[in-house]
Amino acid sequence: MELIMKNMFQALGKSRTANRLAKKYGLRFGAARFVAGETIHQSIEAVRGLNQDGRIATLDHLGEFVFSEEEALESAAMCIQTLDAIASSGVKSNLSLKMTSLGLDISRDLCVNNMKRILDCARQHGNFVRIDMEDYTHCQISLDIYRELRQEYDNVGIVIQAYLFRTIQDIDDLHALGANLRLVKGAYKESPQVAFPEKSAVDENYKKIIQKHLLNGHYTAIASHDEAIIHFTKEFVRSNLISIDQFEFQMLYGICEDLQKQLVKEGYRVRIYVPYGVDWFGYFMRRLAERPANVWFVLKNMFK
């Protein structure tokens, strides 16, 4: 049943019709727990609340379904407005983005030009931009563009997914760049030809890439709510005398808040991924697909 529900939510997340309906009816049925609102102002206030108890953030203006150059330019403009709002408000937050929202599926040049405009703005504000990794079909081109951008910018990082077979090699290939990486397990449905189908194999590969990137001496964001992974990381950095300034834990807005706060109390840097915007549906469906507990939260909310 869990697998059926996961597949259903992943399919819904890619549905244009479902996304249009979600835009029309807004953040209902529990989505507001995981999405900080539809406007920049709402998202900034959410980050301000996180900052008050020691958590920092990365803001993401949601938008994966871009079908025209005009929409891609609008999405890039929203990223720039977000960076401006972070700077003017004084909140502690980076920016995360998906390159499909900047026109990657329309034109590589369009996407790269939008990325450069955003990175120029971020550099002006002394801020940092993280490129979110998407499904496997976008993996290679995302890494290629990242390498191109690193020739000119040092305020950009990218995400690496532990469930892909190729990941260890990608970590090795990015070593020479001194890449700032967010390491995740992976949230997309992928073929067993390119990704580990068993959770245990994903977990073991996740531990391997955490070890490898930290020992390479590069900044590492460990993005997980898995307490076993978090404990493993704590023990590994302690036994290898790795500075607390070389890594951070990252978690999603609205999930495992007690754990987030506990890590802050223990002295770790904790960054919360804070999504906002009207194109929230695909993101919300992936959160439901990841954890059955999220589904029960939504069902209870519907019947309140």
UniProtKB/TrEMBL annotation:
InterPro entries the record matches: FAD-linked_oxidoreductase-like (IPR029041), PRODH_bac_arc (IPR008219), Proline_DH_dom (IPR002872), Proline_oxidase (IPR015659)
Annotated EC: 1.5.5.2
Enzyme class per UniProt: oxidoreductase
Residue intervals of the Proline dehydrogenase domain: 45-298
Pathway field: Amino-acid degradation; L-proline degradation into L-glutamate; L-glutamate from L-proline: step 1/2
Cofactor: FAD
Coiled-coil regions, chain positions: none
Keywords, in A-Z order: FAD, Flavoprotein, Nucleotide-binding, Oxidoreductase, Proline metabolism
Reactions mediated catalytically: L-proline + a quinone = (S)-1-pyrroline-5-carboxylate + a quinol + H(+)
Domain of life: Bacteria
Protein name: proline dehydrogenase
